[in-house]
UniProtKB/TrEMBL annotation:
Belongs to the ABC-4 integral membrane protein family. HrtB subfamily. This is Putative hemin transport system permease protein HrtB. It comes from the Bacteria. The lineage of its organism: Bacteria, Bacillati, Bacillota, Bacilli, Bacillales. The chain crosses the membrane at residues 229-251, 272-302, 308-335. Residues 231-342 form the ABC3 transporter permease C-terminal domain. It comes from Staphylococcus hsinchuensis. The keyword Cell membrane applies. Keywords: Cell membrane, Membrane, Transmembrane, Transmembrane helix, Transport. The complex is composed of two ATP-binding proteins (HrtA), two transmembrane proteins (HrtB) and a solute-binding protein.
Length: 350
């Protein structure tokens, strides 16, 4: 550790340059990761907020909650088994600042509500709560919004991060939903479902129990967006490995004579390897932690309309992967260190 730190102080400009490059790569990786997660959240955050792993829906090859049609007979059979009211979903178009905003409207279901940021859940027929992203369009609690059909709705609250397939969710009371929507899709989100109940539900003609993954995999934009963004993140990690490999290898070559002298005076190879690995860990960790700080500050000033989402788990994963990538990238330097012959390095073989 002492040898590694002394070398960092002696070659401080070189190590600062390496840290700057890692910092820039770290910022790019974290930003793209946040963007990928943000776009993913805009597709599935409503499902996440429902906190349900099973969904009773219309039996179709491509299960989509916004297209699940359940007739009254099926509805009665389902509710006799699970004793729960359905979540109803219908498309709506709101007039906002002279423009039209397509949203998905849901009813209010007991124990299946997203987190409320401000205000209160709808109590009256003409009240709704809106997803926080709509506040970027200058909509606030107490404002009145019109639908394209001429209905006037009052905003009673704001819910956190609740979207489906890039459409913001607005929630109405059960009476308000039924008044505004003559036709709607219907789904039963379930947190607990035993095997016997699932079997009975699957026995109802035209009805099937789907998992959360079944539904998310059928959202067209979900996979289409995630694949290229994840490829970009992977590419940046590969670039990081190549850059770090080149830097540390060149630095190792430049220090061949010093390494040879250290070996000649009795410093063991394992101590030199330990010093190199410590240098890699210190420079990578400092640079990545600064990158995390930069992205954290940026996330605080980003507008709510920006699809950006990073969790501690995502950040921790990026930090760990960067450290692993840095160690992989320094493999050439480690191999070179093993092969250094003290006599040749100090010119004694000539």
């Amino acid at each position: 550790m002492k040898l590694a730190w002394q070398e960092i102080k002696f070659y401080k400009f070189r190590f600062m340059l390496i840290m700057l490059i890692i910092l820039l790569l770290g910022v790019m990786v974290l930003f793209i990761s946040g963007l990928a997660q943000g776009l993913a959240r805009e597709n599935i955050s409503m499902l996440d907020n429902l906190k349900s792993e099973k969904y009773v829906m219309q039996d179709t090859k491509q299960p989509k909650i916004e297209k699940s049609i359940i007739n009254p007979t099926q509805q009665k059979k389902i509710e006799d088994i699970i004793n729960q009211k359905p979540l109803k979903i219908a498309p709506q178009t709101l007039k906002v600042d002279g423009n039209e905003e397509d949203v998905l409207m849901t009813n209010k279901v007991k124990n299946k509500k997203p987190k409320l940021i401000d205000g209160h859940f709808p109590k009256k027929k003409n009240e709704i709560v809106i997803n926080e992203k709509l506040t970027a369009k200058n909509i606030a609690i107490g404002d009145t919004i019109k639908t394209t059909k001429g209905n006037r709705l009052t905003v009673s609250g704001v819910i956190k991060d609740t979207m489906h397939a890039h459409s913001s969710i607005v929630m109405a009371s059960n009476k308000g939903f039924n008044h505004l929507n003559k036709h709607s899709s219907m789904v039963y989100p379930l947190s607990h479902l035993n095997h016997k109940q699932q079997q009975k539900l699957n026995d109802i003609k035209g009805i099937k129990v789907f998992s959360k993954d079944d539904i998310t995999n059928e959202i067209p934009s979900y996979k289409a967006e995630q694949a290229p963004l994840n490829m970009m993140i992977t590419s940046l990690f590969v670039i990081s490995a190549i850059v770090l490999s080149a830097f540390f290898y060149v630095m190792t070559i430049q220090k061949i004579s010093e390494i040879g002298i250290l070996k000649a005076i009795g410093i063991k190879t394992k101590h030199l390897l330990s010093a190199l690995i410590t240098q890699i860990l210190i420079t990578t960790l400092i640079a990545v932690l600064i990158a995390v700080g930069v992205i954290s500050l940026l996330s605080l000033i980003m507008p709510v309309s920006m699809p950006f989402h990073l969790t501690i788990a995502n950040i921790s994963l990026v930090v760990v992967v960067f450290i692993v990538v840095a160690l992989i990238g320094a493999t050439l330097s480690l191999i070179k260190l093993f092969k250094v012959d003290p006599i040749e390095a100090i010119g004694g073989a000539e």
